[in-house]
Amino acid sequence: MARETLEYKGYLYLIADNAWQSLDIATIAERFDVKSIKNTAGDIKTVGGRGCSFLYTTQDHKKLVYRSYRRGGLIGRLLRDSFFKYARFAHRAFDELELLQTMRALNMPVPEALAARESRGLLFIKQDIIIKQIENTQNLCQLLMKKSLNDRTYIEILNTCALLYKNKIVHSDLNIKNILIDNNKQIYIIDFDKCYIDKNMSKDLYVNMLNRLLRSFEKEQNLHQESFYFNKDTFVKLMHSHLDKI
């Protein structure tokens, strides 16, 4: 099915359902202007390893996330923010917006996307997205730098991950920095770049996702040592019990 995009000054815009529908395209385009955001927004905080994302508060007190899609590794040094337009994940921003909409329609605990944008050249695409912040949260890495988590919390984390398997959603980078917990102990999963629905998703693939999550715990534990309050044996035991029930 063709996407219903809006074109304006060389960019294509995809607007989420029930988001910014009352705004004209010029106003939407201005909301993607990084210079304008940084000149008018408050509480700007850069996040992510390559400085391509930041959190901010708009003048009307909306807390949002802006992310420009970037490459990593050696290729990223040559083509920092350009993606081959015929590659499988060429339209990463549009794909992520649509996947987030689908998941929210399933009442899954994920962020709400507002709009995505593409600039298309002859061979390459540049793109960005704006998403609502999930307020009053910390990721698992931040929490475990302060205190240990009880078994119940780990079980809830695993049950939240199970929603991905239940709905056949493949998360390409399930790690402890992409799982948030708010002040009310509600758990969220974020960062669905290059994630997708696979109707034939196997349990083995889900196991691989959880093993990736486990490796992210181990990575941070090796990095922070005694100041990271993670008990691997406990989590592995709970993970195996969780998988036995699926």
From TrEMBL:
Domain of life: Bacteria
Sample GO molecular function, one term: kinase activity
Xref: Pfam families: Kdo (PF06293)
Gene3D superfamilies: Transferase(Phosphotransferase) domain 1
Coiled-coil regions, chain positions: none
Keyword list, A-Z: Kinase, Transferase
EC numbers, comma separated: 2.7.1.-
Lineage of origin: Bacteria, Pseudomonadati, Pseudomonadota, Gammaproteobacteria, Aeromonadales
Name of the protein: 3-deoxy-D-manno-octulosonic acid kinase
Class in the EC hierarchy, top level: transferase
InterPro entries per record: Kinase-like_dom_sf (IPR011009)
Keyword Transferase in record: yes
